[in-house]
Design a protein that fits this description.
Helices cover about 70% and strands about 0% of the residues. The chain contains eleven helices and no strands.
């Protein structure tokens, strides 16, 4: 069960056997502010969160209830399903799941699967072929420009080269292929 920010603050304060007044004095706010946080009437100011996190010896993510490892496990489960959907040419369902797990910061594995689904739709849909081709190119170019993981970058380059080859832009495809790291070739 996820705790609210207020419940998390209350739990941390009680664990330290402190009153609201004691916590307030230690982090530079009023006891009334702490009371409002703990009852979910209001939230701490963003500038207080790092102070509170340091005081309790936890991360700001912990206070906010954001568990990065848990979120990544959820995303990885979805990714397996999306990869399978793309493999089975069920591109619309793959895109629906991509939209469902849209995250910030951007998860480039998810974006890569979005590009693969758009690429697949471009190959199967005659009426929207140009639109899906353009969208796939845009996704893969965004990954290449912004991602720092060479494996995902190179997978995106390979997919992009395939698209350019399919649309007859062979020189672009060859130049992209030449830039791919050796671990993928």
């Amino acid at each position: 069960m996820d705790l609210s920010i207020g419940q998390t603050i209350l739990q941390l304060r009680k664990k330290c056997k402190m009153t609201q007044d004691q916590l307030a004095k230690n982090i530079g706010v009023t006891a009334q502010a702490v009371s409002k946080w703990e009852t979910d009437v209001s939230y701490p100011d963003i500038s207080i969160l790092p102070i509170m996190a340091k005081f309790f010896g936890v991360s700001v993510d912990y206070i906010l209830g954001y568990n990065i490892q848990e979120k990544n496990m959820d995303i990885n489960e979805y990714l397996k399903e999306i990869e399978q959907l793309n493999f089975n040419h069920n591109y619309n369902e793959a895109l629906r799941l991509v939209e469902e797990i849209q995250t910030f910061p951007i998860n480039y594995d998810v974006e890569y699967q979005r590009g693969k689904a758009k690429q697949g739709l471009a190959q199967t849909k005659n009426s929207d072929k140009d639109l899906y081709t353009y969208q796939a190119i845009s996704v893969f170019e965004m990954i290449i420009q912004n991602c720092i993981e060479s494996k995902i970058i190179d997978q995106s380059k390979l997919a992009l080269a395939g698209i350019f080859n399919d649309i007859g832009e062979h020189d672009k495809a060859i130049n992209i292929l030449k830039s791919i790291e050796s671990h993928i070739c």
